[in-house]
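ok new one. same drill as before - C-alpha coordinates go in, u give me an amino acid for every spot. 267 of them this time. try not to just spam alanines like last time pls lmao
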Protein backbone atom coordinates (compact mmCIF):
# COMPACT_ATOMS: atom_id res chain seq x y z
CA UNK A 1 0.00 0.00 0.00
CA UNK A 2 2.82 2.40 0.94
CA UNK A 3 4.65 1.48 -2.27
CA UNK A 4 1.55 2.19 -4.35
CA UNK A 5 1.09 5.53 -2.58
CA UNK A 6 4.71 6.47 -3.28
CA UNK A 7 4.29 5.56 -6.94
CA UNK A 8 1.09 7.64 -7.09
CA UNK A 9 2.81 10.63 -5.51
CA UNK A 10 5.75 10.29 -7.89
CA UNK A 11 3.36 10.20 -10.83
CA UNK A 12 1.53 13.26 -9.55
CA UNK A 13 4.82 15.14 -9.12
CA UNK A 14 5.79 14.26 -12.68
CA UNK A 15 2.46 15.52 -14.00
CA UNK A 16 2.81 18.77 -12.06
CA UNK A 17 6.36 19.25 -13.35
CA UNK A 18 5.25 18.60 -16.92
CA UNK A 19 2.33 21.00 -16.50
CA UNK A 20 4.63 23.75 -15.19
CA UNK A 21 7.10 23.11 -17.96
CA UNK A 22 4.35 23.38 -20.57
CA UNK A 23 2.80 26.53 -19.09
CA UNK A 24 3.03 29.51 -21.45
CA UNK A 25 5.43 32.25 -20.45
CA UNK A 26 3.35 35.36 -19.70
CA UNK A 27 5.24 38.47 -20.74
CA UNK A 28 4.04 42.08 -20.63
CA UNK A 29 5.35 44.34 -23.39
CA UNK A 30 4.72 47.65 -25.10
CA UNK A 31 2.92 47.09 -28.43
CA UNK A 32 5.71 48.69 -30.51
CA UNK A 33 8.40 47.53 -30.93
CA UNK A 34 8.54 45.08 -28.01
CA UNK A 35 5.45 42.98 -28.73
CA UNK A 36 6.34 42.97 -32.44
CA UNK A 37 9.80 41.64 -31.62
CA UNK A 38 8.28 38.98 -29.37
CA UNK A 39 5.91 37.94 -32.16
CA UNK A 40 8.96 37.44 -34.36
CA UNK A 41 10.53 35.30 -31.61
CA UNK A 42 7.41 33.12 -31.73
CA UNK A 43 8.01 32.62 -35.46
CA UNK A 44 11.64 31.56 -35.13
CA UNK A 45 11.15 29.53 -31.92
CA UNK A 46 7.62 28.09 -32.02
CA UNK A 47 8.39 25.61 -29.23
CA UNK A 48 8.70 28.50 -26.78
CA UNK A 49 5.10 29.16 -25.78
CA UNK A 50 4.76 32.92 -25.24
CA UNK A 51 1.63 34.63 -23.97
CA UNK A 52 2.27 38.26 -24.97
CA UNK A 53 0.28 40.80 -22.95
CA UNK A 54 0.35 44.20 -24.65
CA UNK A 55 0.47 47.11 -22.24
CA UNK A 56 -2.07 49.91 -22.43
CA UNK A 57 -1.97 53.36 -20.87
CA UNK A 58 -1.85 53.43 -17.09
CA UNK A 59 -0.85 49.78 -16.64
CA UNK A 60 2.37 49.32 -14.65
CA UNK A 61 4.15 46.23 -15.94
CA UNK A 62 6.38 46.07 -12.88
CA UNK A 63 3.34 45.91 -10.60
CA UNK A 64 2.03 43.07 -12.78
CA UNK A 65 5.34 41.27 -12.36
CA UNK A 66 5.52 41.86 -8.60
CA UNK A 67 1.99 40.53 -8.11
CA UNK A 68 2.61 37.40 -10.20
CA UNK A 69 0.17 38.37 -12.96
CA UNK A 70 2.99 38.02 -15.50
CA UNK A 71 6.27 36.10 -15.49
CA UNK A 72 8.40 38.76 -17.17
CA UNK A 73 8.24 42.12 -18.88
CA UNK A 74 10.04 43.75 -21.78
CA UNK A 75 9.60 47.52 -22.10
CA UNK A 76 11.99 49.45 -19.83
CA UNK A 77 15.58 50.60 -19.40
CA UNK A 78 17.75 50.19 -16.30
CA UNK A 79 17.43 53.70 -14.77
CA UNK A 80 13.63 53.39 -14.97
CA UNK A 81 13.74 49.89 -13.45
CA UNK A 82 15.88 51.09 -10.52
CA UNK A 83 13.42 53.94 -9.92
CA UNK A 84 10.55 51.44 -9.96
CA UNK A 85 12.29 49.12 -7.51
CA UNK A 86 12.53 52.00 -5.04
CA UNK A 87 8.92 53.05 -5.60
CA UNK A 88 7.52 49.52 -5.27
CA UNK A 89 9.91 48.23 -2.61
CA UNK A 90 10.70 45.24 -4.84
CA UNK A 91 13.79 43.70 -6.39
CA UNK A 92 13.68 42.42 -9.95
CA UNK A 93 16.18 40.56 -12.13
CA UNK A 94 17.53 41.66 -15.50
CA UNK A 95 18.11 38.66 -17.74
CA UNK A 96 18.87 40.35 -21.06
CA UNK A 97 19.82 43.78 -22.42
CA UNK A 98 18.13 43.67 -25.81
CA UNK A 99 17.84 46.91 -27.79
CA UNK A 100 18.14 50.70 -27.73
CA UNK A 101 15.44 53.11 -28.91
CA UNK A 102 17.18 56.46 -29.30
CA UNK A 103 15.18 59.34 -27.81
CA UNK A 104 14.29 61.94 -30.44
CA UNK A 105 13.32 65.61 -30.76
CA UNK A 106 10.33 66.09 -33.10
CA UNK A 107 8.40 69.09 -34.36
CA UNK A 108 5.44 69.96 -36.56
CA UNK A 109 6.46 73.64 -36.61
CA UNK A 110 10.15 73.78 -37.51
CA UNK A 111 12.41 71.84 -39.83
CA UNK A 112 15.60 72.04 -37.77
CA UNK A 113 16.71 72.73 -34.22
CA UNK A 114 18.28 75.99 -35.42
CA UNK A 115 14.79 77.17 -36.41
CA UNK A 116 13.40 76.90 -32.88
CA UNK A 117 12.23 80.40 -31.90
CA UNK A 118 13.19 82.35 -28.81
CA UNK A 119 11.03 81.16 -25.94
CA UNK A 120 10.24 77.88 -27.71
CA UNK A 121 8.04 75.43 -25.83
CA UNK A 122 9.40 71.89 -25.69
CA UNK A 123 7.44 68.98 -24.19
CA UNK A 124 9.43 66.38 -22.27
CA UNK A 125 8.47 63.08 -20.57
CA UNK A 126 7.32 63.73 -17.02
CA UNK A 127 8.77 60.62 -15.35
CA UNK A 128 12.06 61.33 -13.60
CA UNK A 129 14.35 59.03 -15.58
CA UNK A 130 13.17 59.99 -19.06
CA UNK A 131 12.92 63.66 -18.08
CA UNK A 132 16.59 63.51 -17.10
CA UNK A 133 17.42 61.68 -20.32
CA UNK A 134 15.57 64.31 -22.39
CA UNK A 135 17.37 67.19 -20.68
CA UNK A 136 20.70 65.54 -21.46
CA UNK A 137 19.63 65.29 -25.11
CA UNK A 138 18.83 69.01 -25.19
CA UNK A 139 22.27 69.69 -23.74
CA UNK A 140 23.93 67.36 -26.26
CA UNK A 141 22.28 69.32 -29.08
CA UNK A 142 23.53 72.64 -27.67
CA UNK A 143 20.11 74.00 -26.68
CA UNK A 144 20.78 74.18 -22.92
CA UNK A 145 23.65 73.65 -20.50
CA UNK A 146 23.31 71.65 -17.29
CA UNK A 147 25.33 71.70 -14.12
CA UNK A 148 28.33 69.38 -14.39
CA UNK A 149 27.02 65.90 -13.63
CA UNK A 150 27.90 62.26 -14.01
CA UNK A 151 26.55 61.52 -17.49
CA UNK A 152 26.05 57.75 -17.04
CA UNK A 153 22.30 58.06 -16.49
CA UNK A 154 22.71 57.08 -12.84
CA UNK A 155 22.58 60.74 -11.75
CA UNK A 156 19.20 62.24 -12.57
CA UNK A 157 18.86 65.86 -13.59
CA UNK A 158 15.81 68.14 -13.54
CA UNK A 159 14.98 71.52 -15.13
CA UNK A 160 16.41 73.11 -11.98
CA UNK A 161 19.84 71.89 -13.12
CA UNK A 162 19.73 74.09 -16.24
CA UNK A 163 22.41 76.78 -15.86
CA UNK A 164 22.32 78.24 -19.38
CA UNK A 165 19.26 78.53 -21.64
CA UNK A 166 20.12 80.94 -24.49
CA UNK A 167 16.82 80.44 -26.34
CA UNK A 168 14.76 80.76 -23.17
CA UNK A 169 13.24 77.33 -23.81
CA UNK A 170 10.09 76.61 -21.82
CA UNK A 171 10.03 73.03 -20.51
CA UNK A 172 6.58 71.40 -20.41
CA UNK A 173 6.36 68.01 -18.70
CA UNK A 174 3.80 65.59 -20.16
CA UNK A 175 2.94 61.91 -19.74
CA UNK A 176 5.14 59.97 -22.15
CA UNK A 177 2.31 58.33 -24.17
CA UNK A 178 0.74 61.76 -24.77
CA UNK A 179 3.84 63.39 -26.24
CA UNK A 180 3.11 62.61 -29.93
CA UNK A 181 -0.34 64.26 -29.56
CA UNK A 182 1.28 67.34 -28.03
CA UNK A 183 3.23 68.09 -31.22
CA UNK A 184 0.45 70.37 -32.51
CA UNK A 185 0.52 72.44 -29.31
CA UNK A 186 4.25 72.95 -28.73
CA UNK A 187 7.26 73.94 -30.81
CA UNK A 188 8.89 70.55 -30.26
CA UNK A 189 8.62 67.40 -28.16
CA UNK A 190 11.12 64.80 -27.01
CA UNK A 191 9.52 61.40 -27.52
CA UNK A 192 10.54 57.89 -26.53
CA UNK A 193 11.22 55.63 -29.49
CA UNK A 194 8.33 53.24 -28.85
CA UNK A 195 5.75 56.05 -28.69
CA UNK A 196 7.26 57.70 -31.77
CA UNK A 197 6.96 54.44 -33.72
CA UNK A 198 3.37 53.93 -32.54
CA UNK A 199 2.54 57.43 -33.80
CA UNK A 200 3.89 56.63 -37.26
CA UNK A 201 7.15 58.53 -36.83
CA UNK A 202 10.46 57.08 -37.97
CA UNK A 203 13.03 58.26 -35.43
CA UNK A 204 16.04 57.74 -37.69
CA UNK A 205 14.36 59.88 -40.40
CA UNK A 206 11.91 62.25 -38.70
CA UNK A 207 13.78 63.35 -35.57
CA UNK A 208 15.42 66.78 -35.64
CA UNK A 209 17.89 65.47 -33.09
CA UNK A 210 18.48 61.89 -32.01
CA UNK A 211 20.14 60.43 -28.96
CA UNK A 212 23.40 58.62 -29.65
CA UNK A 213 23.23 54.85 -29.38
CA UNK A 214 26.94 54.56 -28.55
CA UNK A 215 27.57 53.89 -24.84
CA UNK A 216 23.86 54.44 -24.25
CA UNK A 217 22.77 53.36 -20.74
CA UNK A 218 19.12 53.05 -21.78
CA UNK A 219 19.01 49.61 -23.35
CA UNK A 220 15.57 47.96 -23.18
CA UNK A 221 15.60 44.96 -20.89
CA UNK A 222 13.98 41.58 -20.39
CA UNK A 223 13.07 41.62 -16.69
CA UNK A 224 11.71 38.97 -14.36
CA UNK A 225 11.68 38.11 -10.65
CA UNK A 226 14.71 36.63 -8.84
CA UNK A 227 12.71 33.41 -8.40
CA UNK A 228 12.20 33.01 -12.16
CA UNK A 229 15.58 34.30 -13.37
CA UNK A 230 16.85 30.77 -14.08
CA UNK A 231 13.55 29.38 -15.34
CA UNK A 232 14.30 27.48 -18.55
CA UNK A 233 11.65 29.44 -20.48
CA UNK A 234 13.12 32.79 -19.39
CA UNK A 235 16.66 31.67 -20.23
CA UNK A 236 15.50 30.51 -23.65
CA UNK A 237 13.68 33.78 -24.36
CA UNK A 238 16.75 35.80 -23.32
CA UNK A 239 18.86 33.76 -25.73
CA UNK A 240 16.32 34.30 -28.54
CA UNK A 241 16.05 38.06 -27.96
CA UNK A 242 19.81 38.50 -28.14
CA UNK A 243 20.26 36.16 -31.11
CA UNK A 244 21.66 37.21 -34.52
CA UNK A 245 18.26 36.43 -36.10
CA UNK A 246 16.41 38.90 -33.87
CA UNK A 247 19.15 41.51 -34.30
CA UNK A 248 18.78 41.18 -38.07
CA UNK A 249 14.99 41.56 -37.76
CA UNK A 250 15.43 44.79 -35.78
CA UNK A 251 17.84 46.25 -38.33
CA UNK A 252 15.68 45.37 -41.31
CA UNK A 253 12.28 46.18 -39.80
CA UNK A 254 13.06 49.42 -37.93
CA UNK A 255 15.72 51.04 -40.13
CA UNK A 256 17.90 52.40 -37.34
CA UNK A 257 15.05 53.36 -34.99
CA UNK A 258 15.54 50.20 -32.89
CA UNK A 259 19.18 49.20 -32.47
CA UNK A 260 20.32 45.82 -31.12
CA UNK A 261 22.51 46.29 -28.06
CA UNK A 262 24.92 43.78 -29.58
CA UNK A 263 25.65 46.24 -32.40
CA UNK A 264 26.92 48.82 -29.91
CA UNK A 265 28.93 46.26 -27.97
CA UNK A 266 30.78 45.30 -31.15
CA UNK A 267 31.61 48.87 -32.20
Amino acid sequence: MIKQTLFALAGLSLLVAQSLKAAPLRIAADPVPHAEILEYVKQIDPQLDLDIIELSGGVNANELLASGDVDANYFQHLPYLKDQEKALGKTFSVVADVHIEPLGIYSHRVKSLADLPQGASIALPNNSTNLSRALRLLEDKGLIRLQAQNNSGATLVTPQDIVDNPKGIKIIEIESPQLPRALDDVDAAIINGNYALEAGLTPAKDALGLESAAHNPYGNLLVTTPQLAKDARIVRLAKDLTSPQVAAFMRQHYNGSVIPVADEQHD
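Confidence is low (pLDDT under 50) at residues 5-10, 12-20. and btw The domain at 104-210 is CATH 3.40.190.10 (D-Maltodextrin-Binding Protein; domain 2).
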